[in-house]
Design brief:
alpha+beta, YaeB-like fold, 5-stranded mixed beta sheet, 5 strands, 36% helix, Type II toxin-antitoxin system RelE/ParE family toxin
């Protein structure tokens, strides 16, 4: 199985490190970087075994026929990973947390 992150997702993950550090969610840049690296590792090691749900129409701007799975990183934050799956290839199209995504899920 393979995982391909859309260029927009790769850009967001790089930006996320900066956001987490500058908004002081983490006191050290290295800790913010480790958090994002850990999220990517979780995705690539466990997405295939997670329950997947069909994404609501709202998320079709990121692609057609999307699924999503949830990754809980702590008591306050869950990450929603939106993807297509074909021939054992996971194409990651969008990643957002519960603060940005949950109101659009039924």
């Amino acid at each position: 199985m393979r995982f391909i992150f859309a260029p927009e997702v790769e850009h967001y993950l790089i930006e996320l490190v900066e956001i987490l550090f500058h908004k002081e969610y983490f006191g050290f840049y290295e800790d913010a970087d480790e958090y994002v690296t850990s999220l990517v590792t979780d995705i690539t090691t466990s997405l295939s075994s997670k329950q997947k749900k069909t994404a609501p129409e709202y998320f079709s701007t990121y692609g057609k026929d999307l699924y999503y799975s949830v990754f809980k990183k702590n008591n306050h934050t869950q990450w929603y990973v939106f993807f297509n799956l074909e021939n054992d290839i996971y194409y990651i199209r969008y990643i957002g947390n519960n603060h940005m995504v949950s109101q659009h899920l039924s």
